[in-house]
Amino acid sequence: QVQLVESGGGLVQAGGSLRLSCAASGSIFRINAMGWYRQAPGKQRELVADYTSSGSTIYVDSVEGRFTISRDNAKNTVYLQMNSLKPEDTGVYYCNADLIPNSDSPVYNYWGQGTQVTVSS
Q: How far are the Cα atoms of 6, 42, 108 from residue 83, in angstroms, in the given order?
C-alpha cells in the first residue's frame, strides 16, 4: 500500500508564509511526478505546482513567484514553500503523485488526504 501524508497547513495572516510537506510511503519502486493541488470552497480542484518526471517545475499563474515546489528523492517527499500568501490561496491542499509501486507495475496515481490552508485578510 502506498500512502501520501501531508503536513504543514494552518491559519496565517495575509503576507505570511507556510511550508507544506508530503511524504510518500509504502511500496515504492519509482516516483515520477509529484505535485500539489488545491480546492477552494465551491470551486474545482486545481493544479498549484508540479515537479515533473523530467525534473522541471510548473506553477499555476496565480502563485508564480510566490510559491516554490521542491523535492527530496531520498525521502520520497515533496515540499511547497508558500510566501506572500493571499486570502485567495485559502483551500484544502492535496498532494498528488504518479508512481510505480513495484518494478513490474504500471504507473498509478495517488492522492493525499489534504491539509487545510486558511489565509486571513
A: 18, 24, 31
Distance of CA 74 to the CA centre of its chain: 17
Estimate to the nearest angstrom the gap between the alpha carbon of 76 and the chain centroid: 12
Report the half-sphere exposure of 46 (CA within 13 A, side-chain side). 16
Q: In this structure, what C-alpha cell is assigned to residue 40?
A: 477552494
Q: How far apart are CA 83 and CA 67, in angstroms?
A: 6
Residue range 56-86, pLDDT digits in tens: 999 999 999 999 999 999 999 999 999 999 9
Is the separation of the CB atoms in 71 and 56 below 8 Å?
Answer: no
